[in-house]
């Protein structure tokens, strides 16, 4: 699963809108939409904020692992 797919899935499971999550990680809703359509890639600080928000590992968030647990 790719990062955009994983992000959409996690956001949907939490019931959080793009606008709300964009505010939480300090990005615009436009930038966030582009993350989910793979038009742009987030910075490391945004990836860390998303992993913290969803309580998952960075490897899981970016699709390098299917295990969401943080080590």
Q: Would you mind describing this structure in some detail?
A:
By secondary structure, this protein is mainly alpha-helical. The chain has one domain (3-53): Orthogonal Bundle (434 Repressor (Amino-terminal Domain)). Helix content is 61%, strand content 0%. The protein has five helices and no strands. It has helices spanning 3-14, 18-25, 29-36, 44-54, 58-61. Helix 2 (18-25) packs across helix 3. The protein is globular, with a radius of gyration of 11 Å. The mean pLDDT is 93.
Structural class: mainly alpha
- Give the end-to-end Cα distance, rounded to a whole number of Å: 20 Å
The whole-angstrom Rg is 11 Å
Write down the overall mean pLDDT: 93
What form results from the Cα inertia axes?
globular
Biggest sheet record:
none
Any descriptors?
71 residues; mainly alpha; 434 Repressor (Amino-terminal Domain); globular
Give a brief rundown of this model.
With 71 residues, the protein is mostly helical. The protein has helices spanning 3-14, 18-25, 29-36, 44-54, 58-61. The chain has one domain (3-53): Orthogonal Bundle (434 Repressor (Amino-terminal Domain)).
């Amino acid at each position: 699963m790719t990062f955009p797919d994983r992000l959409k899935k996690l956001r949907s499971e939490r019931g959080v809108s793009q606008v709300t999550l964009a505010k939480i990680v300090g990005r615009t809703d436009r930038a966030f939409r582009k993350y989910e359509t793979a038009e742009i890639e987030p910075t490391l600080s945004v990836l860390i904020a998303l992993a913290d928000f969803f309580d998952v590992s960075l490897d899981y968030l970016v699709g390098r692992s299917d295990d969401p647990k943080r080590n």
